[in-house]
Every structure is written in structure tokens, then in C-alpha cells.
Design goal:
Strand order of the largest sheet: 3-2-1-6
Strand content: 25-35%
Helix content: 10-25%
Shape: globular
Radius of gyration: 17 Å
Distance between the termini: 32 Å
Order of helices and strands: EEHEHHEEEH
Number of domains: 1
Number of helices: 4
Length: 123
């Protein structure tokens, strides 16, 4: 199974002066036809990071359990039932890419997006 990870700040009360921050981490299944992969039944809320300001320094701690589970699903897989073939198979999962804005990209990757070499592709 191929997954996409998306994370970004969410402000539930439409006030940017709020003294908290909410970061949903969403996984989408990408080995489905394009018209199916963005439907709500194939999108999973895996983690919600609550922090007074921003999880900048602790993003790795917040995502640690998700990363461990993804490593396990890649290395050993999980037994899954195939309805079409009516038999079990070993399904392995890989995280294909992440989608986020530049400030979140800086937090997750450690690449500075606001200085001289802001773009990781162009350098």
C-alpha cells in the first residue's frame, strides 16, 4: 500500500491570535484510482499534535509512534484479506511522500526555508 502524509496547522476558531496550535497528521491511500484516493473513507487522521505555539522542536517526538508503525508495516508487513481472491496475503506499506507548506517542511526535514538556500531543489 502506498501512503501520502499531509500535515499543516489548523485553526478551529478562525482566530490567528489564539494561544494554541493544532496540527492534524493525515494519511491517504495512493494505490487506488485517482477518483477514489481523496474520498473520506480512504483518508485517515493518524495523529493530532496539540502545542501552545508550534511543535517545531518536538515534531519528531510527536511523530515517533507513527514512524515506528510505518517502519513495522514496511519491514514485516501485516496479514490482510483480499476479497477478490478470497485469500490472505502479506501487505507491506510505504510512505511515498509528504505534502506540506514550507514552514512545516522546515520542521519535518530540518532544511531552512527562510534563508539563502531556501529551496531544497534549486539550492
Amino acid at each position: 500500500m502506498h501512503l501520502r502524509l499531509c500535515k499543516n496547522r489548523f485553526n478551529s476558531f478562525k482566530s490567528f491570535a489564539a494561544s494554541y496550535s493544532c496540527w492534524p497528521v493525515i494519511l491517504s491511500v495512493y494505490n487506488l484510482p485517482p477518483w477514489m484516493c481523496m474520498r473520506s473513507k480512504f483518508i485517515f487522521l493518524s495523529t493530532v499534535i496539540l502545542d501552545p505555539n508550534s511543535p517545531r522542536q518536538n515534531i519528531d517526538v510527536c511523530l515517533c509512534s507513527l514512524i515506528d508503525k510505518l517502519k513495522q508495516l514496511w519491514s514485516s508487513g501485516t496479514l490482510t484479506y483480499d476479497v477478490l481472491r478470497k485469500q490472505n496475503f502479506l501487505m507491506k506499506t510505504i510512505l511515498m511522500w509528504t505534502i506540506n507548506d514550507y514552514p512545516t517542511y522546515e520542521m519535518v526535514s530540518g532544511w531552512s526555508t527562510h534563508e539563502k538556500l531556501a529551496c531544497p531543489y534549486c539550492i
